[in-house]
Amino acid sequence: MRHILQTDPKPSTCVDVETFDADVVLEGPPEVEFNPGIASRIPAKGSAGGALIRDERGRILFVKPRYKPVLDIPGGIADANESPKAACHREIQEEIGLTLQLGALLVVDWVPRNGVWRDSHQFVFDGGVLAVEQISVLRSHDDELQGFIFLALDDAQPRIHPSLFRRLRLAVEAVKFGRTIYAEFGRAV
User: Fold this and answer.
1) Which InterPro entries does the record cross-reference, listed alphabetically (predicted)?
2) Which helix (H) or strand (E) covers residue 48, if one does?
3) Which of 6, 109, 115, 176 is spaced 20 to 30 A from 188 at the CA atom?
4) pLDDT tens digit string along 16-74?
């Protein structure tokens, strides 16, 4: 049985609750600092989970955020103590009301600092192919979005950040070849 955890102190995750609890116990007591203050000096990285969701023609689902001038894929930034996959699952439900069984991890991409945004890891999961019936009931459920659109990747290129274009090109390749790709700023390494 799978659960999405939403309460503290347990992280929001897509794993079985009993398995997670057992793993926490096996890990042992919380670590202590042998050099006081060292943990607070370690840089924090953000992480986000997004989904490559396609229609039956192979076009990619993009959301239209109100808070930035470019399109994005469904998903979002992981909250504290939340996995990127759980964040992706949660954001897709919040944004477009879709409950998906996310598939394989397609891309892990490191993105450098950009303005106010610190460097981060971007995870792209396989959101599968939606049937016409599923698409017909999609609605924007989030005030942060103006809506959504399905586009071929090449058609989306002028409307998305270049790094997202590169990352999605890798995600499409990962689906085709059945493997996960590690990237840095959208370029396979």
Assistant:
1) NUDIX_hydrolase-like_dom_sf, NUDIX_hydrolase_CS, NUDIX_hydrolase_dom
2) strand 46-54
3) 115
4) 778 888 898 899 898 888 888 888 888 889 999 999 999 999 999 999 999 999 999 99
Write the CB contacts of 130 (distance below 8 Å, at least 6 apart in sequence): 53, 54, 55, 56, 61, 138
User: At CA 139, angle to CA 135 and CA 143, rounded to 5?
Assistant: 150
Q: For residue 105, count other CB atoms closer than 10 A to its CB.
A: 17
Q: Are residues 128 and 117 in the same domain?
A: yes
Q: Give the chain's domain count.
A: 2
3-state secondary structure of 148: strand
Burial of 120 from C-beta contacts in 10 A (0-12 / 13-18 / 19+): buried
CA–CA dist 184, 143 (Å, integer): 31
Encoded tokens for 7? 């309460």
Range of the domain at 165: 45-188
Name 151's bridge partners. 60
Residues 95 and 21 in one domain: no
Task: Indicate the pTM of the whole model.
Answer: 0.87
Task: Look up residue 35 and give its two tokens.
Answer: 């050099």
Instruction: Output the domain CATH number for residue 140.
Output: 3.90.79.10
